[in-house]
């Protein structure tokens, strides 16, 4: 049996992956990341969130790579405070979508200028929408003086109405489901976690076969399949787990640490297991 390739970089999704359900990072996950860094393995966060949270977590964990945010639409070197890549939604598409949502009182958020904006008085669907990096505005159309990094349609009605009205536009529509909550991130077609990670790895001359990627969502699948070792979380949707070779424990059972221990750190520990044929 051929030995597994050496891992030079670990790419980690945040929500549902590195973060536990209460948005903390377990001691075992922290220890595994610290051991990977000590072994000379690079670690990068790849998330659908805006820049604030991944930058905070990267600093907390002692990571020194740029963060890949906004589903791959924005890569930020926070050490140099420099945007390495930005792939926004063209204004010609963004403005009509935002105007429609505002006119029809649909729940949306736009990410522009490295901040999230929602309409004043609109519904708050998750705790992070109350955190730093989120702002209310009387009109979202009026703040679109530049192309937004991405647009989020929140809730089933908003997602369905948007898809009926704008689903034929040449954009990328990433629908994610958490329990009974649905949202759709609208992005430039060139923006994806896989593409952003591939470009970052090329900068460091790291081939795909030496990358360990771990995630739980539909938008993680292309990245997981691109990486030499792609691992789905045990809490991922069945379609995500079925799309890749390996599955680890859920995010409330140190799934990230178990995968790092098995595939990146010697000696390997049992945890992430290949699905039976």
Task: Describe the structure concisely for a colleague.
The chain folds into two domains: 9-86 and 191-274, 3-Layer(aba) Sandwich (Rossmann fold), CATH 3.40.50; 91-187, Hypothetical Protein, Haloacid Dehalogenase-like Hydrolase, Chain: A, domain 2. It is globular. It has helices at residues 27-38, 52-61, 91-103, 140-143, 156-166, 193-203, 221-226, 238-243, 255-263, and strands at residues 9-12, 42-45, 67-69, 74-77, 82-86, 108-112, 115-119, 134-137, 150-154, 172-178, 181-187, 211-215, 229-232, 246-247, 273-274.
Q: Within the CATH hierarchy, at the fold level, what is the topology of the largest domain? A: Rossmann fold
Largest sheet: 6 strands, mixed
Q: What share of the residues lie within helices?
A: 25-40%
Number of helices: 9
Q: What is the CA-atom radius of gyration, in angstroms? A: 19 Å
Form type: globular
Ends apart, CA distance between termini: 17 Å
Approximately how much beta-strand content do the residues carry? Answer: 15-25%
* CATH architecture type of the largest domain: 3-Layer(aba) Sandwich
In terms of structural class, how would the helical and strand content be classed?
alpha/beta
Number of domains: 2
Mean pLDDT: 92
The first-level CATH class of the largest domain is given as Alpha Beta
For this structure, what is the CATH homologous superfamily of the largest domain? HAD superfamily/HAD-like
- The residue ranges in which pLDDT falls below 50 over 5 or more consecutive positions are none
Largest sheet, order of strands side by side?
2-1-12-13-14-15
Element string (H = helix, E = strand): EHEHEEEHEEEHEHEEHEHEHEHE
